[in-house]
Amino acid sequence: MENVTSTTDNQTLGEWTDFSIEYKVVSIFFVILICGIGIVGNVMVILVVLTTKHMRTPTNCYLVSLAVADLMVLTAAGLPNISESLYGGWVYGYFGCRGITYFQYLGINASSCSITAFTIERYIAICHPIKAQFLCTLSRAKKIIVVVWAFTSLYCVMWFYLSDTKELVYNNITLVSCEYKVSRYRYLPIYFTDFALFYVLPLMLATVLYGLIARILFLNPLPADPKESSSKKWKKESSQRNRTISTNNSSCSSTARSRRQVTKMLAVVVVLFALLWMPYRTLVVVNSFLEKAYLDFWFVLFCRICVYLNSAVNPIIYNAMSQKFRTSFKKLCRCGPQQMEKPAAYSVVLTYSVIKDMSNGESPDHFTTEIDELGTSTPADRILPSTMRMSFEDPSLSGRVALSTP
Predict the structure, then answer these.
(1) What is the pTM (predicted TM-score) of this model?
(2) Residue 280 forms part of a structural domain
């Protein structure tokens, strides 16, 4: 995070005045509260996706990447703010200054890239469903995440060489601060490049893509899935024509509702990213054109808290807007052995059906994504076409078959 307190160079320092008690209490309270909730929430997101099989979808992989980036922001930017409020200076030394500054920028930039990645993934999945069969897969999402972190890790290496400790000698005390080596005016091109790449461009792209997604989801009917179309054609020729048509319509409606819900949740994440980062970004941009930077302690604290809140609020959004995340969070918090989510006895049959249906060259990863996106509460006979349903002679088994993805 840019150190906005390091904008005064070569000025005579007078008497040093410590922060007021009110400022210390308010800053430490909110930072501990927000960072504590954010760290616990993001760790839960990571654990839920990694330990729950049906949660391992391309979109959730990007959310794990975002959670890791948010954890970096909360620990590297949020927690050091507590010591700054208590002591008024930098207490982590020379290597701490360089390392913490690096991880601050790495978390910030990786979170922006992760948001851009799942925005593009949603656009392809909704607006180009045929291409999504091959592009929006779990393996491809993992590769993209590796590229995102490799790029941001290399890009942020420059902060190792731009940050350094500096002694501030006052009349009554000498403090150490973590500042930038280059002067304020030489730093501006670096900052504005970072500002454009990781804030302006992602938001412009998200605005355009979510506008196109909204046109498909809310103004036009959902594009037909090739599997659903072939299934519907086959069902029309069967003896149970009326029943299968109503089932297909119900499945389409469930798919549309699920996709709208996921898209709304991700759109809220993007909007909050834009709003909560805006005060701090605006402050630094305005100070770039002022003779004397505006550095009111309370307003700077407000800007920082907004940044920490952005990294802490995402798990709350998932819990509020996603039934799957809410259920998985509850299971993660329970103690003792948990009941299996899906009967293992039916896994082999369903796996065979999935492989059989993928014989036309479609990606099994994408099929898993589409099934999981519907949620675990959707009955199997409303998701799978009739050629993929299991039939049993025992009527007691009907209506109780749960999906089991490979």
Answers:
(1) 0.74
(2) yes
